Amino acid sequence: MSIQFLLKQRLGIQFPAVLLLYTLLGFNQSYAQELRGGGETKAGLLSLNPNNSKKYKNIIVDAKDLSRLLKDSIVFKDINLFFLHKKTNNKSLGYEEFSNGRPLENTYRKINDSLYEIYINTPSYEVLFACKKNDNYGPSWYGKMTGGLNAPDAMGGDYDSLIIKKENRQTEAFKIYSYNPFLYAAELIIWNKKTKKDVITCKLLFQFPKPKLAGVTTDTLLINKKRADPSFNWYKNYDSLKLKGQKATIKKGQQILFAFEHFLDYYRWDYMDNLFYRIDSASGWSLTPLASTPSILLEDLKPGKHLLQVKYPVDEAPVFTYEIEVLPRIRDSPLWPILLGVVVSGIAFFFVNRRRLRTAREKAQKTRLELQAIQSQLNPHFMFNALGSVQYLMHNNEKQKADHYLTEFSALLRSSLSNNEKEMIPLSKELQVLDSYIALEQLRFGFRYQCTIDKAITADTIPVPTLLLQPLAENAIKHGISPLREKGFLEIRISQQERALLIAILDNGSGFASTQLYTGLGTKLVRERIALLKRNGYPIELTFATNQKNETKVCLKFRNWI
């Protein structure tokens, strides 16, 4: 808890004030320490010396190095505030940290004839409250100290008298009235001894700086030090306080410790401080324990964003802020049951889907084996028909044609064997094998052949099932145009219909009866292959048609192929 009290001193009534202070301090032995003139105790309370037992030296200042608050005043010529423009020899007042390291002149502002605001910007340029013996007016001061915040030494506290000289000659001498400008609500007062009323009030204004953060940590070992000693001195442990910046993110249940630097550092190292702090503006201010380096331990923060506010324990002190985000634990989230359900469903889906995939793979493997079996039947069928053609030429004593046929057949056989293990090959290679086969059959039957491909078709990049066209072309030659010999005509047309690939095989033979569609081994194998390919996701259709001229058209349609 903070200790607040009022000090009001007037010349001639010092001793009762001291008795009052001793009475107040009697409730707490830690604050009952010796009171010395113009200084402060280690507990942070202003001390007084009613007996003036300690003598101070004089301060001698040239007239050009000071200015007066009440200029050319006849009434208050014996009492005034003097602003020094040079540093005194009092090293304890070297607190340039108040003005961010820049020495600034101490200034004032007149509100009215009875009220002035005094701005203490650089304490080492002292503002002296000095007076001569006067029967009408006297000096006094009023101030309030809060908690354990210790102000710097009193202004004028090291001196007994102010001697003003001009051209090396003393012109005036005043008794210095020491006071502490860093007390909260401190005022210097000139009062009328006869009416007992204040005549002029000078409010001393000093803006406390924001507390300076030394570091933040969530380390359990360091937090345990704080638990063991709430006033633990973090000065030698600054390097261990690793978290910096103005924001921290922690998990629910995690503790976080903030340590702050000592106010004015080594200037006041023998004194302890404390700070006001609160979490979010809705809560009230709490006071840290007295410590050289005050620290704050936050525990059990609720999930969400919080704002830590810290300041020195005076009303006008600026506020240091720090953002803290507390992340909820997964199990504390309202979405946890939903997430758990999703995870369980996902695991169940994984195993079910894995089983389905395994079944689909087994089915596809079975289909692939069936396709390979059919393809293995096509190759002997193709070779049997080709050798039959060679035999036909040999029996007709067409040895030269037979020799050429064997040469073409060997090249065709090599191409067929190289593609035998592949389920799909480019359309260009399939046409190459087909052209080689048709060239052999032309040696035997002498029919005419034509192949047309739309310009939009890129045969090198469009895949088709291996050896799918050859049995259909063979069927057109064997059952359609072989009796016509040189009058026979075979045409293959390749075109595109939207995203579908169309391959048509036309001949001018005698047509076919519906009972002939499924009798040929090659045609039967092609139909079985297409049925298996459909099961594997290949949308292929096979149709047969005969026009009025008995011309036959066999059409393969590959849907969504291009």
What is the percent of helical residues?
Answer: 25-40%
Q: How many helices in DSSP terms?
A: 7
Average the pLDDT over all residues and give the rounded result.
77
Weakly predicted, low-confidence segments: 1-54
Question: What is the level-2 CATH architecture name of the largest domain?
Answer: 2-Layer Sandwich
CATH class of the largest domain: Alpha Beta
Per CATH, the superfamily of the largest domain is: Histidine kinase-like ATPase, C-terminal domain
Q: Please tally the β strands and state the result.
A: 27
Q: What would you call the structural class?
A: alpha+beta
Main beta sheet strand tally, sense and closure: 6 strands, mixed
Spatially, the strands of the biggest sheet line up as 1-8-11-12-6-5
Description of the structure:
The chain is an alpha+beta fold and 562 residues long. The protein folds into 3 domains: 202 residues, no CATH class; 120 residues, Sandwich (Immunoglobulin-like), CATH 2.60.40; 221 residues, Histidine kinase-like ATPase, C-terminal domain (Heat Shock Protein 90). Helix content is 26%, strand content 29%. It has 7 helices and 27 strands. A hairpin with a 2-residue loop joins strand 24 and strand 25. Helix 3 runs antiparallel to helix 4. The protein is rod-shaped and about 160 Å long. The two termini are 84 Å apart.
